[in-house]
Write a structure and sequence with these properties.
The chain is mainly alpha-helical. 69% of the residues lie in helices and 1% in strands. α2 crosses α11, α5 packs across α10 and α10 crosses α11.
């Protein structure tokens, strides 16, 4: 990085709205909240609504701001978009337009020290929330990548009236609910303060911890990780390694056992007509990426092995790896051939017949073949690691 760039980062002015917000909420959590909890009893209703708004605001960020508006992974009915818009503003993470525009830059420039707004290369604190406390060069607003969002009236209404909506949702809504249940203070503490602080930091975990802690089963080209523990706190966003390579998928946790309530919410909305055009990455493409990563891992492990230590075993493992590479190339070639057939069928307006033809059975056979290769490569990687030890 040049000295001019260094100087610009060092002299970046404080972002006073963010500094004041985080100072007030942190101070409130450290002083007012424990005092109130010690001297008052929270009503059951306050706790119930705390959980409702934790999930409501959290998944308005993950399902609305993130998967709907930032990545266009599906489309939503205007009524669902309004819910996302209101509860998203309640999270105090900026307007949809600003949030989604900056997130698109993050995906385009991921890990770049100067251009990624919350680059993991600048450290855990920076990627978690430090990037918001100063007006760094990487945070300069430019909506050229969000022209589609500027044509959305719901997005622009929220953007133009963001402060009023955010204040109403964070103060008036908890207070009115508290008044209805006779527990204004409890609602302001739980639904207002505690919910806000926790929901913000849970979201920030995706930018910070999800780039430091976890596994990389799909790619090592960026720092994003898959982490089942983080998925529990981030409404399914913890499968971040998958997301960074397949960002247009409406799912992050692609297997039924993976905790992704955002995915389930979107799928449920689709069943009642509130969401549609849900995008999914084909299973073959997912498995192909996993096998490719395992081939890389096996090659890395074999490269570490000492040839003079176990020459016979190492040669056998190398032969197995070469066979797997050849098998992978054959599968990839067959897939490319099938995709070409599908394209030609579409040109002849025979796509439906193609989908129902034996080609689908051939694709399933290729998926099964990749699944078996994935298992073999897992064993091969373990054997290679033992040889390298």
């Amino acid at each position: 990085m040049s000295s001019v760039s260094d100087s610009a980062w060092e002299r970046a002015p404080l972002n006073w709205p963010a500094v004041i917000l985080f100072s007030l909420t942190t101070l409130g959590m450290l002083t007012v909240f424990p005092w109130y909890a010690w001297t008052h009893d929270f009503s059951t209703a306050a706790w119930v609504w705390f959980v409702v708004f934790m999930y409501g605001t959290g998944m308005s960020i993950t399902g609305g701001y993130h998967r709907l508006w930032a990545h266009r992974a599906y489309q939503a009915h205007w009524s669902l978009k309004i819910v996302y818009m209101l509860l998203g503003a309640m999270s105090l993470q900026n307007s949809i337009l600003i949030w989604a525009s900056m997130h698109r830059i993050h995906h385009k420039e991921v890990d770049h020290r100067d251009r990624d707004p919350y680059s993991a290369e600048r450290g855990l604190w920076f990627s978690h929330m430090g990037w918001m406390l100063r007006n760094y060069p990487s945070s300069a607003l430019d909506y050229k990548n969000a022209r589609d969002l500027m044509e959305d009236p719901i997005v622009m209404f929220q953007h133009q009236h963001y402060l009023g909506i955010a204040l109403f949702m964070n103060i008036a809504v908890p207070a009115l609910l508290g008044w209805a249940y006779g527990d204004v203070g409890g609602f302001l503490m739980l639904v207002g303060l505690l919910r806000l602080v926790l929901s913000q930091h849970f979201t920030f975990f995706i930018n910070s911890l999800a780039h430091y802690w976890g596994r990389q089963p799909y790619t090592t080209e960026n720092s994003a990780r898959d982490n089942d523990v983080l998925a529990l706190f981030t409404y399914g966003e913890g499968y971040h390694n998958y997301h960074h390579i397949f960002q247009w998928d409406y799912r992050n946790g692609i297997r039924w056992w993976q905790w992704d309530p955002t995915k389930w919410m979107i799928a449920g909305a689709a069943r009642i007509g509130l969401a549609y055009n849900l995008k999914r990455v084909p299973e073959f493409v997912i498995r192909r990426q996993m096998v490719q990563r395992q081939l890389e891992r096996a090659q890395e492990q074999l490269a570490k092995a000492q040839p003079e230590a176990q020459p016979g075993r190492l040669a056998a493992l190398q032969t197995l790896l070469e066979q797997e590479l050849k098998h992978y190339a054959e599968i990839a070639s067959e897939w490319a051939k099938l995709q070409q057939e599908k394209l030609e069928a579409a040109k002849r307006q025979l796509a439906e017949q193609w989908e129902n033809s034996e080609a689908r059975a051939r694709i399933r056979a290729l998926e099964d073949s990749l699944h078996q290769q994935h298992r073999r490569l897992r064993l091969l990687s373990l054997q290679a690691a033992q040889a390298a030890a």
